[in-house]
Every structure is written in C-alpha cells, then in structure tokens.
Amino acid sequence: MKKTCLLLLFFSTITTLNAQFWQPTNGPKGGMYWDMSTNPVTGITYLVVHWTRLKGNGLGGNIYSSNNAGVSWTEIDNGLKGQPVYKLASSSTATHLIIAVMDTMTPLAASVPNKIYFSNNQGNSWVLSNSTYFPGNLPPTSLQFNAMGDTIFAGQKTAGVSFSVDNGISWQTSNVGITNRNITDLEYGLNGNLYACTDSVAGNGAKVFMQNGNAWVDVSIGLPGTRIADLYYDAANTTMYLGTGSFTNGAGEIYRSINGSAWTAIPGYPGNEAQRMLITNTGDLLVRILNQGIWKYASGTWTNISGTLGSLKTATISKDNSGVILATTKAGIWKYDETNSSWIYFTNGIKNSSARAMAFSNNGDLLAGTENGIYRSVDSGNSFAQVGLKDTVMMSVSLNPTTHKMYAGNTDNNGSKIFTSNDNGISWINNSTGVNTTRTTDFAYNKQGKIFCGTGWASPVHSSTDGINWNGPLWSSLGFSQSRVV
To answer: What percent of the chain has pLDDT over 90?
Structure first.
C-alpha cells in the first residue's frame, strides 16, 4: 500500500509540474474574424469570429462584445456550443440580440433548416427561438431590428424577406412586390425606410426594393442589374450608397442616390465587388473591396489606404457610436487613424488567432502557418513577424531534417500549393508542379530522402527530388485505398 501511495504521489507531482510549463505566446496575428457591428444606442460592439471558410463539421464560432471601442472584449457565446454564427443583429431600444447559425453536423444541406437564437441580456445567455422555419443551404444573409425593437426582419437567398414579432419564435414572409427573392442585404435608409437589396440570378437582374406598408416598391432606377453586395446610408447628407459586384469576374461599381433620386455611378472606382461601406468622421467614403483591401473616396479621388493592414482580404469595416473605425482582416483587428490615413493593430483579448501548423527551422526559429500566411518568431513566441504568403490559408509547415529545407502547404478550393524555403522560413517560393488537390495537410520524410505529402481531399503524393517536382507515385499504389489523409 505504501508503494502504491508513493507511486500515485510521484505521478501526481509530475503531472502538476508538466501542467505548469504551458503559457500563451504573443501571437501570431491573424485568425477567424468575420463580422463586426456596433449598437448605436448602447455603444456595445459585437464581433463574430470563426474559420475563413463556411464549411465543414465542427466549424465553430464565438461572439465577443466590447463596451469600450474594442479596448477589451468579453466572450458571449454561452450555450451556443461552438455553432458557427452567420449573422447577428442588436436592438437599439433594448438589450436584445438575435443570431442565425448553420448546422454543424450537416452544413449547407437544403433539407436541414437553420437555427435562430435570441438573447434578452446582451448575450449572457441564448435561447433557441426557431429551428424549423428557415430552409437549408445558407442562413439569413441579413438580420435587422426595426427602430422600435418590436420586429425583426430577415433576408435570405431564394426565400426573400421574413419578419418576426415574437423575438424570432415564429416568422412570416413579407415579399409582396419583391420580384427577386435572392436577398443580399437589408438596411434602413432615407426617411427611416427599410430597403432590401438582391442578387442577380437566372436573368432576373439585381434590384433595390423599399418597404411601403405591407408591400415593397422597386427603386432601382439607374442601376445596371448586377449583384448588390451592400447598401449604406449617410444620414448627414441624406445619401444612400450602393456597392455592386459580379460573380463571373468580380468587377463592381459604387452608386449613390441623393434624397431619393435615381442611382448614379461614382466615377473612377478602382475595381472589384464593393462589399462594405461607411462614412468617416471627416465625411469621406470608405469601401471594403473584394481582395483589394480598403479604399477611400475623397474630393473626387480614390485612394488605396490598405498599406498597414497586413492583409488585403478584409472581412468587415465598422464604426462605433464614438466614431472609432475598426476593420477585421485575416491579420486581426485594426483601428483607423484618420489623421495619418493608416491602420493600427488593435487585437486585444481575442483568443481566436489561428495557427494551424507549427515547425522549428534548422536554426531554431518558430514558424507558424495561419490563415494569413507564415509568421516567424526568433524569441520563442514572445513576438511574431509575417514572413510571406500573405492572405494565404496555411495548413502545414515542416522541416526536412536531412536537407534543412522547409515545406508549407495551403488550402484553396481552386487548387492548393506547396511552398518551399531554403533560408529557414524567411522567404518562400512555389514548388507545386504535379500537385492536384485543394488541401495540403502534412509532410513526412523517409531515410531515402523521399518526401511525402498528405493532400486532404485527394490521394497523397510524394517527391524524390526534394520538392522540386511532385509527380511521384500516388500513395494509393502503395496500399492506400482512402483519399483523405490527415
């Protein structure tokens, strides 16, 4: 008995000591930032975070709130069990919040309705309001409380506009007059009216509808009929702005309507789909452009102000009721300095920085693969610096112990790549000849110097030429019958 007690005590001591060895690092930047909005009355800012790609079991999602312009954050996803949050809206007259989530076990299935959760205490707790009304595929693309806070509107692709007067428990359609039910945005605009924007599907051009009593009126005069991504209202100048985009080539335009006049294009717009807009405190227009960062329109000129953001794949821009402008990217949260037209890294207290893979280089530096490329630490994780592959979602990082070359693989639905580094991860080049996969998940090496790569959704490949050419025999010829290797 004495020996047993001594053994248990010894094991307990080791376990306690080992547990004390772990502590968080300061970085790297980057993570799962998705959407952000501020309640204009309470001043509380809400942030939704999750993986970049809205796909897959166990996707996960958290909600944070801040009552001090993002200086500190509190997690408020109690009871949601990591379900991916797609949209959030807050009432300006109460402490009410409503969110739409996807099903984590069967995402994007038309037969599985999406869930609506409601909170009456600013997210301290959540109640499942409805899990049967909204058809599957994607959850509502937009949620809005009305000015009195007693009605919630929801817009969804293929289903049009619905509303609830009992905190999301029951829903009714409100589609009279809407000729295109592929809703992309719901926003309040001129004279306090509710506007619905649509996609361009099956030859039915995108339109803007204004709610008029129990019906909707088409107010699309001047628009080209291409997809509408966002609508924003500048109350100070009674001007509505609208951003368009194209699924085929990504090109877009910015249109405006002053005092309800016909829509006219703003000249000189620089490029892709305009995904989010707002007006700065000095009256300039900021636009988040698809894969082109954030641009400013001032005095008739467009200027790219993305220089210090650390990522061109932005997720959202938002302004709180104190005038602080925040942006979320794959590199974190950033605060806009209007005086210097620059961005300051501003991620405080958010736990969801995403490092999916780590490896030490031959000289002992720590390399981390994130949703924003590769980050490198030369001081054991006390600080990280971005060293390449910006805006690339990384899945794997590895060191060949024989040649000291480093390998990294990404994930991309259009075809992933394999990158190599000959300088301990300081710079990276594309060595992907022969690779045909959307995931590059892992690397291994044998004593003959052959390099093997697990490719996730395709058969694994190997290289006998140190990664210069990846057209070696597939693993399936060596006895692997399954194509998914983690």
So the answer is: 44
Q: Which of 85, 32, 99 is nearest to 350 (CA)?
A: 32
Of 224, 163, 228, 225, residue with least CA distance to 194:
163
DSSP state of 266: P
Region of 331 please: left (phi>0), alpha (psi -120 to 50) or beta: alpha
DSSP state at residue 256: E
Residue 28: asked if its preceding bond is cis (omega within 30°), the reply is yes
CA pair distance 392, 408, nearest whole angstrom: 11
Q: What is the pLDDT of residues 318-343, one digit of tens each?
A: 988 888 898 888 777 888 998 888 89
Contact criterion met (CB below 8 Å) for 176 and 162: no
- Give the tens place of pLDDT for each residue, 407-458: 999 988 888 899 999 999 999 999 888 787 888 888 888 777 778 888 766 6
Question: pLDDT digits over 232-249, tens only?
Answer: 999 999 999 999 998 777
Mean pLDDT of 19-47: 72
> What per-residue string of b and e applies to 248-277 under the rule 16 or more CB within 10 Å gives b?
eeeebbbbbbeeeeebeebeebebbbbbbb
Q: How does 387-422 read in b/e, with b if 16+ C-beta sit within 10 Å?
A: bbbbbbbbbbbbbbeeeebbbbbbbeeeebbbbbbe
Q: Which helix (DSSP H) or strand (DSSP E) does residue 62 occupy?
A: strand 62-66
437 neighbors 456 (Cβ within 8 angstroms): yes
- Determine the Cα–Cα distance for residues 6 and 353; give it in Å rounded to an integer: 42
Strand order through the sheet with 314-319: 314-319, 325-329, 332-337, 342-345
